[in-house]
Each structure stands twice: as structure tokens, then as C-alpha cells.
Amino acid sequence: MSNITSTREADGTVALITMDDGKANALSKAMIADLRAAIDEAAADENVVAAVIAGREGKFSAGFDLNVMNSGDMAAVVDLVADGGDLVRHAYGCDLPIVAACTGHALAAGALLLLGCDIRVGADGPSKIGVNEVAIGMVLPDWAMTICRERLNPLFLQQSVANARITDPAGAVEVGFLDSVTAPDQVVEQAVAAAASLAPLHRGAYRATMKTFRGSVLDQMASEITADRATGTGVSR
User: Residue 232 domain-assigned?
Assistant: First the structure.
């Protein structure tokens, strides 16, 4: 059974893709595959102008599936992390604008998924947001370093990446994981409104602009993900 639901909002112009595994919204292989499929389905719908990726109440995503990450099976770990890189890159390079409704905690790969979205609206409150890999004895893969350098505020890059600094949603705006915060009961509604406001964009012009604007970063991420899969690296303790 999929942990992803996809509905059409704003008179069918916005695809609302919701993650809900009843727990922490861990990015398992199945969750990642279902998210990609939902994004592709939205992009193929001519009536859809943008997609929103939302979490469950209090949880956006706490990162990769710990059952895999702590399994000791390095091949499975590398495969999962590379799949996650593909998802973040896919969102960042999508022909369709992607908006995040960060409904709560977004840690590690969950925070990286925020960086792959065009607009990020967060729920104001006690949620924790950031990449905490160094604090838990891991090294961010190269593709994650690339998207962090691209999207985070350079003034906070050292603290956020090397020092594993975790912030609340207001702090995450300053750092660059979010663009704005709102009341928790308004976050999805505001994200959908932000997505609907992109209706004037011409799909072909957006696609061509993204190819020029983000092409070098997307190419670099693709090379890094491919290298991780080929060498069995990308995550270390």
C-alpha cells in the first residue's frame, strides 16, 4: 500500500502530493519511487501548473529509512541514498514547479528534499529542520553537498553542513531551507496558493529556463550520483 496520495486542488491546477506513513515519513525506496511517480504524473497533466509536496501533521520527513541505514548492508545503503539523490535532483530539474509544504520536522534527507523544491512554505512551531549527518557520524554524499552549496545561505553553510546545526522553521528561512513560515493549520493551504500563483508561467519557457538556470548543477549532481552507484560510496561513517 502506498504512503503517497495525490489529489488535484485549486480547480485542478495544482497537484497536492502528500506523504504519510503514519510515522516519521521516512524516505524508503518505496516512498521515493512513489514520490517520483506522483511528480511525473503531475508533470504529464496539461491542466497542472505546479505540484505541492506535503507531509503529515508535525512531520515532513525525518530522512532516509533507518531500517536500511542501520542494517550494515552497505550496498543497500548506497542504493537508497543514490535513489534519494535522484529524487532531489528530479524535483530540482522538473519541468513543473515544485512547492514544499513543510508540515513539521525535516531532517537529513527530508531537509535535502526541501532544497529540491522551488518554493518552501513551513509550519511555524517547534519543528527541527536541517542536515544533521555529521552529528550522527555520517558524511553527506557529494550530490547533497552540491545542492546545499546551491541553495543554502553562504553565511550559514559552515554551521548548517559541517556543524550539523538544526534550526526551528523561522531559523530555517534565514539559513535557506525555507522561504516563509505560517501557522501550522495554514501551511498546506498557503503552499497550494503559492503553487496556483504560478499559473501564468509558460511550461515550455519554464523548462528551457530551468535547463539554462540549473543545468550545470543538475549535471554535476547526476555525475556524483552515478559515481556513488558505481563505486559503492557516497555515505560513510
Answer: no
CA distance 198 to 131: 29
The verdict on residue 188 lying in a domain is yes
CATH of the domain at 113: 3.90.226.10
Q: What is the pLDDT along the chain (237 residues), one digit of tens a residue?
A: 579 999 999 999 999 999 999 999 999 999 999 999 999 999 999 999 999 999 999 999 999 999 999 898 999 999 999 999 999 999 999 999 999 999 999 999 999 999 999 999 999 999 999 999 999 888 999 999 999 999 999 999 999 999 999 999 999 999 999 999 999 999 999 999 999 999 999 999 999 999 899 999 999 999 999 999 998 766 654
DSSP output for 136-148: GT-B--HHHHHHH
- Cα distance between residue 164 and residue 115, in whole Å: 16
Domain assignment of residue 206, yes or no: no
Answer yes or no: are the C-beta atoms of 50 and 35 closer than 8 Å: no
In a domain? residue 49? yes
For the record, the C-alpha cell of 63 comes out as 530522512
Q: Which of 135, 164, 168, 161 lies closest to 147, judged by CA?
A: 161
* Sheet order of strands, 104-107 included: 58-61, 104-107, 129-130
> In which domain, by residue range, is 74 found?
4-196
Q: What pTM did the predictor assign? A: 0.96
User: Alpha-carbon distance 101 to 123, whole Å?
Assistant: 8
Residue with cell 519554464: 206
Query: How many structural domains comprise the chain?
Result: 1
Residue 124: exposed, middle, or buried by beta-carbon count in 10 A (0-12, 13-18, 19+)?
A: middle
